[in-house]
Amino acid sequence: LHPVMPFITEELWHEMGYGGDGGYIMNAPWPQPADAGALARLGATDEVLAYVAGKHEVVRAGRALKADFGIAASAEADFVFVAATLGAAGMFASELPQIKSMLKAGGMEVIVAGERDPGPMPGANCGPGTVYLSLDGVDLNAETQRLSKQLDAARNEVKRADAKLANESFVSKAPEQVVARQRELREEAVQKTAKLEGQMETIARALKARAARLSRPG
Predict the structure, then answer these.
(1) pLDDT, tens digit, for every residue of 155-195?
(2) How far is it, in rounded angstroms, from Cα 113 to Cα 132?
(3) Which of 22, 75, 169, 172 is deepest in the core (most CB within 10 A)?
(4) Does residue 218 surpass a pLDDT of 70?
(5) Beta-ladder partners of 109
(6) Cα dihedral sign, 89-95-101-107
(7) What is the pTM of this model?
(8) Under a CB-based contact definition with an 8 Å cutoff, are residues 193 and 151 in contact?
(9) Which residues, at least 6 apart from 81, have a Cβ–Cβ distance to it below 8 Å?
(10) In 3-state terms, what secondary structure has residue 156?
């Protein structure tokens, strides 16, 4: 970036400890890949790099959960992050405002594995732990209908693929790549069916828990 925005790059370069007194980027040699020692001095330890990768993995998983359950990416939702270790919980808690911003989260609780059961919520396993999406505020009956239609379509895709692959004439006469593609489509439909069935089971548990809360006195 230096030729484009030299005032910013010079400032950053010096703040990061390069150049020394009176040095300028324009007179510096082209940078070489940093060794492990140099990275460690800058704070880029293996632990930090793993944490950053894990943080982005959690954000991706949380966004995918919102999409799976019909929540718009721009809409706020609540999450619970169950950290695999106390250290991971501490690091995530220290950056909670930034993580919530990336997830568009209205609220996000960080707990340690074994501390308590997060309840009947859909979750996704990540490197540093498991992120759970709260379904409070979601129209679970409407979501059940939406997912039910997708599940029926996925099951029909499996049936169509099975019928084609069971047809000896198709398998023997069709080009090899066509048959292979049909097998791939069947596998994709099988995986989608399993995922949708899991989502339906999660919603059923959430509906049961919601009904139990509403039936409690007070």
Answers:
(1) 999 999 999 999 999 999 999 999 999 999 999 999 999 99
(2) 12
(3) 75
(4) no
(5) 80
(6) positive
(7) 0.71
(8) yes
(9) 58, 89, 92, 108, 109, 110, 111, 129, 130, 131, 132
(10) helix
Structure letter (DSSP) for residue 8? H
3-state DSSP assignment of residue 130 = strand
- Please check the confidence at residue 64 and state whether its pLDDT lies above 90: yes
What is the pLDDT, as a whole number, of residue 191?
A: 95
Spatial separation of the C-alpha atoms in residues 82 and 129, rounded to whole Å: 6
Q: Yes or no: say if 128 and 92 are a contact pair by the CB < 8 Å rule.
A: yes
The per-residue DSSP string of 76-125 comes to: -EEEEEEESSHHHHHHHHHTHHHHHHHHTEEEEEEEETTS----S--EEE
Comparing CA positions, the residue from 122, 116, 119, 128 lying closest to residue 140 is 122
Structure tokens at 165: 């692959």
Tell me the pLDDT tens digit for each residue of 11-50: 898 888 887 777 888 888 887 777 767 767 777 777 778 8
Question: Could you tell me where the beta strands, DSSP code E, fall in the chain?
Answer: 77-83, 105-112, 123-126, 129-133
